[in-house]
Amino acid sequence: MATLLWQVLPYLALAVFVLGHAWRWRYDRFGWTTFRMPLVRNRLLRLGSPLVHLGVLAVLVGHVLGLLVPSAWTEGVGLGQSVYDVISVTAGTLAGAATLLGLVLLVARRIADPALRRGTTVMDVVMYLVLGLVVVLGLAATVGVNVLGSGHDYRDTVAVWFRGVFVLRPDPALMSGVPLLFQLHTLAALALIAVWPFTRLVHAWAVPIAVFGQPPAGIKARR
Asked: In the chain, what are the domains?
């Protein structure tokens, strides 16, 4: 089971991520940068959208630093472990809470507006559920383990395993002693990676696509 979860599943998720984007580009290229329904402006959108976008950006920056930067490097520039822990827990909790609040507002807007509710697809529901699960589990791990619990330094376990994935040497033994909430958060993140190409999350690439050239407006999505 450990081999399946921590050696096989990451590469399956990454394969679906890459191949799914290739499929989406092939059959729905114009849909990457446009919404299929009118963008309804209201108070929930004005509040929820910035919270989600800024919160996700902060979460991503924190994860990049935490997962890709070894603890020896931060200690080498004078940032001790205790200081790093305080910054990580505080910033991570605030960013996660902002993202979760924004998601709740956007889901409430989608439910409350009849036009948006009718236009909601199955993959929209999947996206909100998986993204919400990732955020909730991340907050639960941060608060439940590192604030209220005994604490866990994920940079010595999850981060080392994560870097191992990209050098084709993931060590499942590193994840064996990781608290369950951190494990579930990691698995939920892999699920989000897998469903990403088939949801509205592909709009995250709208700016890079615009830089390199959007497809002509006359192109219609092939189904």
From this structure: 2-25+43-201 (1.20.950.20)
